[in-house]
Amino acid sequence: MDPSPTPPRDAGVDAGTGTSDGGSDAGTQEQDAGTGEPDAGGPPPAFTLSTASEQTVRFNPSTSTAFAVQVDRDAAFTGAVSLSVEGLPPHVRTTQALPVIIPEGATSTPLGYIPDEFAAYGRFSLKLVGEGGGTRVEFPVTLEVQPGSAALDSAFGTEGVATVELGLPAVKINGMAEQADGKWILVGSTGATGQRDVLVARLLADGTPDATFGTQGVVVSDICGGDDYVDAVAVQSDGRIVVAGGAIAGTNTCSGTKYQSVLLARFTSAGALDTTFGGTGVRTLQISTGISTLHAVTVDANGNIVGAGTVESDGLDLLVVRLTPAGVPDTTFSADGVASMDVGREDDGLCVAAEPDGKVVVAGTSTGSLDTLVVRRFNANGTADNSFRYLAAFSSPDLTPRTLRRLPNGSWLVGGKAVFSDGDTQAMVARLTASAGQDTSFGREGYTYFTAGFTGVRDTAVGTGVLADGTLAVATWSQDAKGASGVGVVHLSPNGASILRSHRTDLPGDEQPTAALLDAQGFLRVAGTRIPAGKSEAVPFVTRFHPY
Predict the structure, then answer these.
(1) Which of 133, 404, 486, 541 is the most exposed place for a label (fewest CB within 10 A)?
(2) What is the pLDDT of residue 512?
């Protein structure tokens, strides 16, 4: 935030004269701001103050607005005036360090107010206080603090952050969704790696656990006694919750030899396993004797559940699984509901989107020595759509997607991170044409790379959204040079050519955001885990930012 004030502007002030307070201590006189006239029996003050009595400020990390404060001296007084402010609310500072000295001969000074992201919104009564020539003069000001574009919503949680104490060990949050009623769904795992269990939590719109869901807002599921987790979540139109990940299991059994298998499960709106989904609410698919897992899930226009991930079969291949709404493999999709694609040496599907005609688009990585962005499409019957294929074929940077979005015109928006050959890590947004070609009208040859806030930080885009005017809102996991984490918020122009605003929010503690989305009200919601100040154990957190 630039602490230097902008040039003073005419505040449109009624510069009434100040008055003395006949009842004040000797040598001290106070301005009567209500009448502009001296109290009976007292001498006139040595000077009066005037400025805009109604002032409005908002959070903006790059600019500040100052208001002209005028001093009108009596003919007998020519000295300096010391100006201070009483009643400043927390997290609001002045554009100049107080007190401000208005030197002899000067008749005005610029003075403004800079709220940081944690400032409360509303109207506050302040008092300008000037002292000089044995006179104390007061001028009342009403300061209205408004949220700025992309500012932290300080009315949410505690100073903009809700820390979710679930009472569980080693909680990780891997995915987030919003219900139609504004409630949050968080998914991930609890427990040490190797003995993790599936975690699903629901929060009220204000970020507190929803006691009507599971046990005090949380459901923990142990699939087969091994290592289980979920990476993604989707909410159906009827409110049921679908999660996708991996489990050490057989195909719908915990018996026999078990491998890392695909996991899909569905919960009712009350947090119980939905037994209309495959009979038990849980489906596991042992696709190979190696690793198979899902990292993304969506529900298509027919209510089918579509997951994307990776399967080990002479190397790693892109994997897509499609189940019917009843939770059984969709035999119209590759005959058994499972399709894979060998793109390169090591392939991993990280994002998925279903098109209205039933086709499935997967974004992920195809690695040899590089994490190279790959975007491929499967036809509605599970075969490869060879008319739609994208493979970045440059040596630097390495690209890893985290989000995939189909835009209204049919083009595609991908967000994630870019790691350059010198180790520099930046957030990345790419736009592809409707046929997965490189959209050279976006950014620089289809890509834009950026960081939130300061030079030297490392950023990964964890969520993207499109505002009504086409502006791209991006939330990032932002790490500074010392490894401390924060939440970055960046607005990009619709064509990706310029950064409209960018800042990094340093919450008290150390946070790792892992998911973000634009909600129905236009707030940018962010979720992840954080280590609160003075603590050592990470706990879930949620926060939100004003988009406009």
Answers:
(1) 133
(2) 93
Residues 353-386 pLDDT 10s: 999 999 999 999 988 767 789 999 999 999 999 9
CA R_g for the chain: 29
d(CA 63, CA 382): 53
168 Ramachandran zone, left/alpha/beta (phi>0; psi -120 to 50): beta
| Residue-number span of the structural domain to which 436 is assigned | 418-504
| CB-based contact 187:173 (threshold 8 Å) | yes
The string of DSSP letters for 205-237 reads: TTSSB-TTTTBTTEEEE-SSSS-EEEEEEEE-T
Q: Which residues of 358-372 are buried (b: 16+ CB within 10 A; e: fewer)?
A: bbbbbbbbbbeebbb
Domain boundary among 90, 125, 146: 146
Domain boundary among 146, 171, 206: 146
DSSP letter at 330 equals -
**In this structure, is residue 48 part of a structural domain?**
yes
C-alpha separations of 25 from 22, 84, 91, 357 in Å? 8, 20, 33, 82
Single out the residue of 60, 122, 65, 48 nearest to residue 89, CA to CA. Answer: 122
Q: For the chain, what is the domain count?
A: 2
Distances (CA, A) of 478 to 299, 336, 524: 31, 42, 16
Structure tokens at 160: 């903009």
In angstroms, the CA 138 to CA 106 distance is 19
Q: What count of Cα atoms within 13 Å lies in the side-chain half-sphere of residue 520? A: 9
Query: Which segments of the chain have a pLDDT < 50?
Result: 1-38
Q: How many CB atoms lie within 10 A of CB 468?
A: 8
Q: What is the dihedral of CA 428, 433, 438, 440, to 10 degrees?
A: -90
Q: What's the one-letter identity of residue 185?
A: I
Separation between Cα atoms, residue 35 and residue 20, nearest integer Å: 11
- 176 within domain boundaries: no
Judge contact between 48 and 31, C-beta under 8 A. yes
Tell me if residue 251 falls in helix, strand or coil: coil
Q: How far apart are CA 66 and CA 52, in angstroms?
A: 11
CA–CA dist 390, 436 (Å, integer) = 6
Four-CA torsion 49, 50, 54, 57, nearest 10 degrees:
-80
For residue 463, give the nearest of 271, 232, 282 by alpha carbon: 232
Is position 5 within any domain? Answer: yes
60-88 pLDDT per residue, tens? 877 778 999 999 999 999 999 999 999 99
In angstroms, rounded to a whole number, what is the distance separating the alpha carbons of residues 498 and 501? 9
Q: What is the pLDDT of residue 16?
A: 34
Please check whether residue 307 is in contact with residue 352, taking contact to mean a CB–CB distance below 8 angstroms: yes
Token pair of 413, please?
């928006």
Domain membership flag for residue 328: no
Three-state secondary structure call for residue 155: coil
CATH number at residue 60: 2.60.40.10
User: Of all helices (H) and strands (E), which one includes residue 265?
Assistant: strand 259-267
